[in-house]
Every structure is written in C-alpha cells, then in structure tokens.
Amino acid sequence: MSQTVAVVGAGYMGGGIAQVVALSGRLVSLADQSAAHAVASRERIIVEAADFASRGLFPADAAERIAAHVSASASIEEAVADADVIEEAVSEIPEVKQDILRRISAASRSDAVIGSNTSTISIARLAEAVEHPARFLGVHFSNPATFIPGVEVIPHAGTSAAAVSTVLGLLEDCGKVGVEIKDVTGFVLNRLQYALFTESCRLVEEGIASAEDIDRIARTTFGFRLPFFGPFAIADIAGLDVYAFCYRSLEEAYPDRFAPPVALEERVSQGRLGLKSGGGFLATPPERIAEITAYRDTAYAAMSELLERLGPAPVEY
Q1: Best exposed site among 70, 78, 228, 308 by fewest CB in 10 Å?
Q2: CA distances from 94 to 33, 97, 113, 120 (A)
Q3: What is the tens place of the pLDDT at every residue in 222-244?
C-alpha cells in the first residue's frame, strides 16, 4: 500500500489510470511531454471525478481524494525518479513508446516496475528500449480505465516473477481483475475483439444485415451472456457436440473461415462434451448444472432489468 506510482501519458487513458490508482490510496505522479498538459490533465480528472461522484459512480469524496493523491510533474524524469511502479500510456506507436520507455528506464530506480499500456505491440519488442528489462511487462487497461475491470498483464520472456506479482497485487488493490497472459501481438482482448469485428464487417459487406441490426443481435444474444460466462463456459453449457455440428454446417458454407478448431474436435472425440459429460474445456461436474442454471437465470433477469432502467445507448446509425 506504500507504493508510489507514476503515470506517463496524461491523455484519457493515462488520466483514468491515475484516478483508479489514486482512489486506492496511493500517491500518483502524472506526466506528459509538456508540464502544461500534465497540469491540465490533473485538473480534468478532478473535475471528472466530481461529476462521477455526483452520479453515484465514484465515492462522494473522490474529487478530494484524487486532488490529494495526484500531482502533475514538471517532466517525465521528475515523475518517475522515485516511483515504485510506472505505467506508460502514450500513443500506440512503437517508436514513440520506445523513446518514452528509454527516458523512463534511464531516469527511474533500477528496481522500479515499468508497465506499458500497449494494446497490440509485442512486449518483447518494447522491452528492447528498457534498461533492466526484467522489471518490464505489459499492463493493458481497457477504455475507460475507470470502469472496465479487466486488465491484461503480459510478461515477456525475461520479466521477473516479482514484477508480475507487484502488478497483480496493485491491480487487486485498485479493484481490477488482472489476468496474466503470454506475449503475442494483439494479446487476448484484441485478437478476440478484432475477430468479431472482422466477421461483423463481412456480414455488412455481404448484405446479410445492417450495422445496426448486427449490433442489436450481438447485444441481445451471445453478447448478453458475456458479462457472466466467457466463450468456453458458454460452449460447455451448450454442449461441445452441438458446437461441432454447427461448425460442420459453417465449414460447408464458408470453408475458408470456419474450420472446426482442433481443440474442439479433440474434446468431442474423447467424449468430453461439456457440462453434461463432466467436463469439456472446463471441469465443472454435472451435479452443478442446477446451480449454474439458477445463477444464469438470475443474472440474465438482472441484466434485463438494468438495460430497461438505463434505456438504449444514445448512438445513431
């Protein structure tokens, strides 16, 4: 809890990360390429916190807490000099990130943990710019960082276990869900997100449905389940044999896009069909079917009530 944190990059992502960390009780130094931008960002996140508090989204004293815990630094070097943990959140351009990481690692303590908020760039590639790269890893928040709970934690091959542990502990204290994954381009979040977007665009291009109708279907069917069950839990509940049958139909129509995954075929051939057989991708026993069904029904009803209360999102097509 005594950790001090520096956030380098004072845009909306960096500002949101600073808010989250400050509300955990830690001191945060906010820096950008110009001192004026850091000062303006600090003022913005305090005003924003007051607005969030007025809407019941932040604690009532959030603005005061953030004002007390976040300082705007005169330079990147000043911000990181005494920090225990540093989060880089500058533009998603490899050369820009590497330049900033060189400055961070040169000015920081050798034992300071350095994270990058990159969403797609290989962590090993960025690590080339960091002195003592064992302390470096990816720490990928989603936008808005203030409210999206999941954070990808991505060590490269040389990242120390201590650095990973430090970041996971910090995220937990901030109320976030840190998930450690391997270092590949796009990581997990964006490989999933862009796979969905690619197929969505194909459906529009083929004239199957409009963008509005595709969004409506995604939100009200499989997307409706995702806050509660991930893709593998959903598949296990439905039955992997059912998925295998559906893949055969899809492969026949779209052979270049929908070959059944090897991992699915292996499990079906072994009789591991999901929840009904005691395991598929997960190991949930059949005797928990009633419990899962009850949770599902309660969760979906609560989601329906929430959506009805909030009303439709104010987007136009």
Answers
A1: 308
A2: 16, 5, 20, 10
A3: 999 999 999 999 999 999 999 99
